[in-house]
Amino acid sequence: MWTVLEGSVAIAEAVRRCRPRVISAYPITPQTHIVEHLARLAADGELDAEVVNVESEHSAASVVLGAVATGVRAYTATSSQGLLLMAEVLYNIAGLRLPVVLTCANRAVSSPINIWNDHQDAMAVRDSGWIQLFAEDNQEAVDLHIQAYRIAELTRLPVMVNVDGFVLTHAYEPVDLPDQEEVDAFLPPFEPKVRLDPDHPLTLGMLAEPHVYMEARYALNEAVLGSKEVILQVQREFQERFGRSSGGLISVDAPEDAEIVFVAMGSVLGTIREAAESLRHRGIRAGVLKVTCFRPFPGEAIASALRGTPRFIVLEKALSMGSGGILANEMRAAFYERDRRAEIISVIAGLGGRDVTVAQIEEVAQAVLQGERGPVFLGLDQRLLAREGTS
Amino acid sequence: MPGEKLRLRVLTPGHRACQGCGQALGVRLALERVEVPFIVANATGCLEVFSTAYPYSSWAVPWIHSLFENTAAVASGISAALRALGRGEVRVIALGGDGGTADIGLQALSGMFERGDDVLYICYDNEAYMNTGVQRSGLTPPYARTTTSPAGRVRLGNVRPKKDMLSIAVAHGVGYAATASIGYPKDLERKVQKAMGRRGPRYLHIHAPCPLGWGFEPEKTVEIAQLAVQTGLFPLVEIEDGVVTGVRKLPKRLPVEEYLKHQSRFAHLFTSEEGRKAIAEIQAIADANVARYGL
Amino acid sequence: MSIHEVRIHGRGGQGAVTAAELLAVAAFQEGFWVQAFPAFGAERTGAPVAAFARISRERIKLRSQVYTPDVVLVLDDTLLHAVDVMSGLKPGGVVIVNTTGTPRDLPLSGDALLYSVPASEIAEAFLGKPIPNTAILGAYAAITGKVKLESIVEAVKRRFPGKAGELNRQAVEEAYRRASELEGYRLPPRATDEAPAPVRPGPALVLTEALVGSPATSLAYPTAGWRTLVPVFDAGKCTGCMLCMVYCPDGVVSQVGPREFVADLDFCKGCGVCAAVCPSDAIVMVRETHRQRTAAR
Asked: C137 and C78 in one domain?
């Protein structure tokens, strides 16, 4: 059913259809609208879930950890500092192999404090063992949440669905919400074998001494790597049932002989698509490579895509301080491992809600074609830097 | 054998607790006679480390360890899940040490209390961070020597009083809150039974001496626990719906020296004039406990 | 580079780590480069633990664990039943055991010279406490000649200033004197079919998802090796009050008759709580020598 909904409400409606039985979250902008809507549904008796109002994100993550360990489907959502506060619990959830689903309404991290969108929060927990998916628009946000529960429960790994704060969570646009029956048919009831149950007492969260810890971490890494197949399989199943292609690892929209291809994650892809189209109109063979799944990192898929393309502009809303663009560097490693040569130009853009425009993207493309090799910080106010005395 | 079934019911031997561990004894006394099915959420600490070195688990009941400070929240999640599953007959018991309860875990515990979650939270108080090597916690008693509150030339160990966890629990409106000691097993077991007879958040604070951290020979664990009670330093009380309903009276109260002198963590108090003043202060704390609860 | 490696076996609380540190400090005073470190584990007071020392003429860069020691020091002869102290010892290596027993009675075999030194007894005599970790270093100096007695004494006095240092000095010197008179006992060769004592008995290690444990599996992890004292129950004095069973921290005491209780000796750690709480003195803790342990098995 097509309706115009706020992104947060659309996500909440998708989550509702996945029938979580325990929901726990702590207020933080811009995530709050999602759980507010779920709380309202529960209050009206339209959602059969325990809503646990906690005193911190650390406890929100801990509540869903305990709930999933007891054998019920659970949901939490957060942003920015909330995700960082959860970090310790996120590692724990992954290590315990608990299929939690979490929405991260992506937001900048402090200091300086800033409530607007970028991806620094999600990148800070990229090594935790969570599957990380990024939505381009609200329709994909809806679809990825439904897929997330399926992927999580098949792989017994937690899944974080990243949705750009404000840009998507607070934007109204048409979405096609699937019917409850369709979702039920796609997502069978959650019946984990390992759970806290007095009839079958198991010990969860044991101490791993040096003779076994490394094997445990190796096994987790193998599981995360192996989830790529499941993510693709769930993408196919979803397409068969709902008739839409969403999810998966990457998707490519580029001419065969593209001379320049943009790589990005999340909502900025929409603006990039507009810019690429505009560049093509002007005779520049530009394309787009979308990374939907950042963890596991689809290095093989990226490095084998667009084999003829000589240069990629990786535009990302995060950076590793003292190193650079994270997606760009991982992509360089993926190329190097496979002996593929291409220029990979790193562009850091849109930190803390700084807007990214079609004109800026076109300008970067022109500069790269004229020899600019980056790293580029898109739209830096050089006059401000000069006044600060640090340019 | 009558003991056989009990011993295998909760915490089985083969764990790696120190000789004479008060905490290991406390777990046995608190949980072995709980008749209803239950799930345990356990904070990081000695208990978790000594009972679950993979692949050897000493737990015969379903048990989870997540982290240090989130045990009350994990227990809340288990409780919520059991509600969702309609398994009201299964109960949740959270276990944490003094640091995991009164310091790093206090925020999550406050949330669990305030929400009214159906969990019995048991704090094993051995009055310092023993798992990491005897560092001061918010429940370390005054003038006790720890590795981070050493007794030196100008300081006599820890300077602050024990955080009053019982009052903190009661201030949250917790229906049942009590203290107990491994030195008084019948009293401890009765309190657990009483707590299990109620629903909602409940709090039990168990004094559990640590031979290593307190500096006494392992065989003295029980005696030391009893002396803490008999001197009035660890009052055994229970508070139901905000009202004190049970107090262990001390008709033959002992002076605090009788408790302090057995423990090397207080040895520095017996060698100087300042130390004697400190002992007098500790005696005043015991006297205040007696006055407060009518021991 | 030639590195002299020493492994010290003790129990949590016996000072094995301190012994390694003192040995390192002593050797450093003689111009050696040194390294000392513990084997970290989850075991607690009473549990078998190990510590290591490396001594070399050149700077030691190696950071891996010690696998093939030149010398093994054993702080407690009851450990011989809990740990394979001979593991990895270099052919012709030296084993020094703190025991009142004689070398040929100790359950050891292999290509090594064995020395027995009553370090606890010496410590008891000089310090009033049976803490063997300094005295055994005196024996080490006498037997190996690797470091001088004076260096050990100096290290001990630095570590324990004042009277304690002086008493420790006397214990070290006494152990040195007695060990100087010892001849090494050549151990019988280890039979090829003789399996070393299992350090980690029990089920094979299987990697489960998220390391999920099965209930009560620690019953396959006996802790008898932690014990130096064993409770002996006197049914004649027993009143059947059950306090020993109630108060056993490890839950290993069972009732087998109206006035009859037993401790499960696979798990009893010998803490002595049962004897301490017994109101009728029906339980006494006795030192369990290696010979009694062998007879019990």
From this structure: yes
Q: Does residue C193 lie in a domain region?
A: no
Residue C207 above 90 pLDDT?
Answer: no
Residue found by looking up tokens 């008995």 in the block: C201
Q: Whose CA is closest to B156, among B255, B276, B261?
A: B276
Which of the listed CATH numbers 3.40.50.2000, 3.40.50.300, 3.40.50.410, 3.40.50.970 matches domain A2-242?
3.40.50.970
For residue C203, is it within any domain? no
Going from N- to C-terminal start, the domains of chain A cover 2-242, 250-388
Say yes or no: C202 contacts chain A, CB-CB below 8 A: no
Size of interface A-B (CB pairs under 8 A): 161
The CATH number of residue C225's host domain is: 3.30.70.20
Contacts of C45 in chain B (CB under 8 A): 18-20, 211-212, 218
**Is C64:C22 a contact under the CB 8 Å cutoff?**
no
- Do the beta carbons of residue C99 and residue C77 sit within 8 Å? yes
Chains touching A, CB cut-off 8 Å, 3+ pairs: B, C
- Region C165-189: mean pLDDT is 95
Asked if B58 and C216 come within 8 Å (Cβ–Cβ), the reply is yes
* Chain C interface, best mutation among A100, A203, A215, by max C CB count within 10 A: A203
Q: How far apart are CA C265 and CA C259, in angstroms?
A: 19
Closest by Cβ to B218, choosing from C214, C218, C273: C273
Phi-psi category of residue A97: left, alpha or beta, with phi > 0 → left and psi -120 to 50 → alpha: left
B56 to C222: CB separation less than 8 angstroms, yes or no:
no
C36 contact partners, CB below 8 Å, separation of at least 6: C17, C20, C21, C23, C24, C51, C52, C53, C54
Domain shared by C88 and C161, yes or no: yes
Q: What is the CATH number of the domain that holds C157?
A: 3.40.920.10
Q: What is the distance, to the nearest Å, from the Cα of residue B225 to the centroid of all Cα atoms in its chain?
A: 11
pLDDT (tens digit per residue) in C210-256: 999 999 999 999 998 888 899 999 999 999 999 999 999 999 999 99
Residue C236 domain-assigned (yes or no): yes
CA C83/CA C251 separation, integer angstroms: 24
In which element (H, E) is residue A4 found? strand A2-6
Q: Tell me if A2-242 shares its fold with A250-388.
A: yes
pLDDT digits 0-9 by tens, A48-62: 999 999 999 999 999
Q: Per-residue pLDDT tens, chain B, 295 aa: give them.
A: 444 555 568 999 999 999 999 999 999 999 999 999 999 999 999 999 999 999 999 999 999 999 999 999 999 999 999 999 999 999 999 999 999 999 999 999 999 999 999 999 999 999 999 999 999 999 999 999 999 999 999 999 999 999 999 999 999 999 999 999 999 999 999 999 999 999 999 999 999 999 999 999 999 999 999 999 999 999 999 999 999 999 999 999 999 999 999 999 999 999 999 999 999 999 999 999 999 999 9
The domain made up of B2-293 has a fold known as Rossmann fold (3.40.50)
Nearest residue of C to residue B2, measured between CA atoms: C255
Query: Which chain A residues are within 8 Å of B81, Cβ to Cβ?
Result: 21-22, 50, 66-72, 74
Query: How far is CA B202 from each of CA A276, B22, B79, rounded to the nearest angstrom?
Result: 62, 22, 13
Q: Do C145 and C46 sit in the same domain of this protein?
A: yes
* Closest chain C residue to the Cα of A194, Cα to Cα: C212
Alpha carbon distance C270, B19 (integer Å): 7
**Type of residue numbered B58:** S
B73 in contact with A at a CB cutoff of 8 Å?
yes
Question: Mind telling me how many Å the CA of B118 is from chain A's nearest CA?
Answer: 12
Range C124-137 average pLDDT: 92
Q: Chain B neighbours among C 245-264 (CB < 8 Å)?
A: 245-256, 264
pLDDT of residue C236: 95
Q: What pLDDT does residue C177 have? A: 97
Q: Say yes or no: domain A250-388 is CATH 3.40.50.10750.
A: no
Domain membership of residue C208 (yes or no) is no
